[in-house]
Amino acid sequence: MRANYVDDAERIHSRLREFESKNKPLPGIVDPAMREALIDQIVDSEQRVRYFAVLQGRALDPASTDPAMPGFDPLRAAIIHNQAGNYDEAVWLVFLYVHFGKHRRAGWRYVRDVYGKLGQGGLWDWNSTSNDITSFRYWLDDHQDALRAQPGKHGFGNHRKYESLKAWTENGTGEAFESYVDWVHAEGGEHIQRFAPYAPLTAEDRFDALYRSLSNVTRFGRIAKFDFLTTLHRLGLLDVVPPHSYIVGATGPLAGAKMLLLEDGATASAREIQSALQILSVATQISPDVLEDAVCNWQKSPDRYVRFSG
Q: What's this model's pTM, rounded to 2 decimal places?
């Protein structure tokens, strides 16, 4: 265990032991090596969440908002725009962050190149895109080759590796952008108006209602909806909290949860596993988003800690 995370690890150890003492041992972590590996993954997941708070406490370089600059970062840009009162642009950048993802080697290249119009002048910011989505789709269609021909690596992030830059297909980036714009415009055209009808709800009910509503956005499946809403929360852009892990329909997180919760040979439905994981989350005070991320990474190497960054 890394020295600076010892306290976090001991806290998680203690809460898992307390949960097991009141219930029964968790089958997947009876083996001490598997227990240590899971705890390390939980610590890592918590650290990734804390990173968002750290960013908000820093004096960020304004160049982070400029896709022409090497330091461009959509998350930092979202913070800067929000602090400047440009809420629409902040949420839009979170959408771009989720839609394109961060490529393991190319970084933010697709976000940078599309948002920055390949450096040809202007931006596909919220105002320009939402007010003329047809022009955006024509631009995207015209620049397919240029987006792929730029020197160096390119591609979508790990969770988005099956996405397409296509402008006019039913499942491409053009359709994804237009469906997102339509989703926002359905409540008046601004993000604050889009979120306003959910204001009377609790943070957990608000998350769930918006999660379901986002099904209207093309190519926004389970992971994208979950990441979009949790990122808005972590950046202080929207008061939403996941009520559970949303692992129905998942692959890695569901496999990890089953490994953790089920005895060898036992079976359970995805909803039963989701409910059991929610009980564990509440009892141990490990948030659903952290637990979902941790079990997903843990099941890839359950008896030996391996750091996963994407």
A: 0.94
Q: What is the pLDDT of residue 105?
A: 72
Which candidate, 160, 178, 159, places its Cα nearest to that of 169? 178
What's the domain count of the chain? 2
Do 38 and 98 share a domain, yes or no? no
Decide if 38 contacts 298 (C-beta within 8 A). Answer: yes
Q: Domain of 102?
A: 63-225
Residues 92 and 219 in one domain: yes
Residues 85, 155 within the same domain? yes
Query: Residue 140 corresponds to which amino acid?
Result: L
